[in-house]
Specification:
By secondary structure, the protein is an alpha+beta fold. It is built from 6 helices and 12 strands. Strands 1, 2, 3, 4, 5, 6, 7, 8, 9, 10, 11 and 12 form a 12-stranded mixed sheet that branches. Strand 1 and strand 2 form a beta hairpin.
Length: 240
């Protein structure tokens, strides 16, 4: 089970793939909007364990979404802030020397290089993670920021109904402080606004104080409950 795979049990559909190229860790995600049953999770975990994985991680989930995962033995791995923007005041997208344009498939190697510099090894994207972010919602926008034709940042933003999701934002640390993150967020919010999104959501690690300060400065408000990524190590026994 080293390639993406979907495990189906009744109404449960759970996608499994290696965690960002790490062959020892599986990433287990339910279908969008679905909370899996304990039986469906147990079946998925049996397949994952037999596939040779040592541990399993989940996406960032709300407390309500975490419940069945906690019931089968998952524990909190890392907490994240969940922030909401009411999509009224939108920052500008003009920065001297910076050009925003549509992201292309040919940009992906350079985009992943920027992502790897912007995030630590655990959180950085691989090609599958990038694709997942682009297809996580029915509609999405992929934009890159260039400086003298070199990609220095990007965002992926999705939309489902009237809710927008800033799925990923990364800026090369070598150009921090030039307003590139603000411009990319402005582009994302503007796209959502033109498509009548009433709110835009984003999450960020609790330890990422730089990103949190930027989001707060641009009008994002933290939600009280936040999110958490859960983990299960197979040294722990999963009870039926």
């Amino acid at each position: 089970m080293r390639r993406p795979n979907t495990i189906t049990d009744g109404a449960d559909r759970l996608r499994v793939r290696p965690w960002k190229g790490d062959p020892s860790i599986a990433f287990l995600s339910p279908s969008p909007g679905q909370t899996p049953t304990i039986r469906g999770l147990q079946r998925a975990l049996e397949g994952i364990r037999s596939g040779g994985f040592a541990a399993v991680l989940t996406p960032a989930m709300t407390p309500a979404e975490q419940s069945p995962f906690l019931d089968v033995g998952f524990v909190e791995h890392e907490r994240l802030h969940l922030l909401r923007h009411q999509n009224r005041e939108i920052p500008g997208t003009r920065v001297d020397g910076i050009h925003l344009r549509r992201g292309r498939n040919s940009d992906i190697p350079d985009v992943l290089d920027v992502d790897g510099r912007a995030f630590d090894s655990f959180w950085k994207f691989d090609q599958i993670s990038l694709l997942d972010a682009r297809i996580a919602t029915p509609h999405s926008r992929f934009r890159v920021a260039t400086l003298r034709h070199r990609i220095v940042g990007y965002h992926i933003t999705g939309r489902a109904g009237t809710v927008g999701y800033l799925q990923r934002l990364a800026v090369d640390p070598s150009v921090h402080g030039r307003g590139i993150g603000t411009a990319l967020i402005g582009d994302a919010l503007g796209w959502c606004h033109r498509r009548q999104c009433s709110t835009v959501l984003v999450n960020t690690q609790e330890i990422n104080t730089r990103a949190l300060a930027l989001y707060r400065h641009l009008g994002f408000i933290p939600e009280p409950s936040g999110l958490a990524v859960l983990r299960l190590d197979f040294e722990q026994r999963v009870e039926p």
